[in-house]
Write a structure and sequence with these properties.
single chain, alpha+beta, four-stranded antiparallel beta sheet, 4 helices, 37% helix, 18% strand, disordered N terminus
């Protein structure tokens, strides 16, 4: 793992532990904060599949998911947009959601929002299959 990936993993782990991983953690309030915390959790639990580079000009695939919490506090993903010629990228995005632990420390409002509307996030895949989430991605490189 390169130095940037190691640093990204450490930051994501700390943020996830503080915001999602421990009872009594700080409670996320805004929808934007909840979305950023979700993205950090995906980065932590999919560290080997994530990149922290500026996304390449022509992405291999873009997968957009609506992510919700079910009544058992487990994550569920619904495909909004995928690339039919790249089903493995859709599977990778869905798997990155499915492996997340149940969040803790969410405010009742944040839990209700995640159960009702959920959040919409885009997985930006490089040609090597690694991804960044739109919420945390650096600006895309020019052609």
């Amino acid at each position: 793992m390169n130095r940037n990936a190691t640093k990204l993993t450490a930051v994501a782990a700390l943020a996830t532990a503080l915001l999602w991983g421990s009872p009594g953690a700080a409670q996320a309030q805004s929808a934007d904060q909840v979305k950023a915390d979700f993205a950090r959790a995906v980065y932590q639990h999919s560290a080997g599949k994530v990149h922290n580079d500026r996304p390449q000009p022509l992405l291999r695939a873009v997968v957009v998911l609506r992510v919700k919490l079910n009544e058992q506090n487990q994550w569920q993903a619904e495909v909004f947009r995928d690339n039919p010629d790249q089903p493995e990228m859709t599977r990778a995005a869905i798997e990155s959601v499915a492996q997340l632990p149940a969040p803790t420390g969410l405010s009742p409002q944040a839990q209700q929002m995640l159960r009702n509307e959920g959040l919409v996030e885009a997985w930006l895949f490089q040609s090597d299959g690694r991804f960044a989430l739109k919420t945390l991605a650096k600006p895309q490189r020019g052609a």
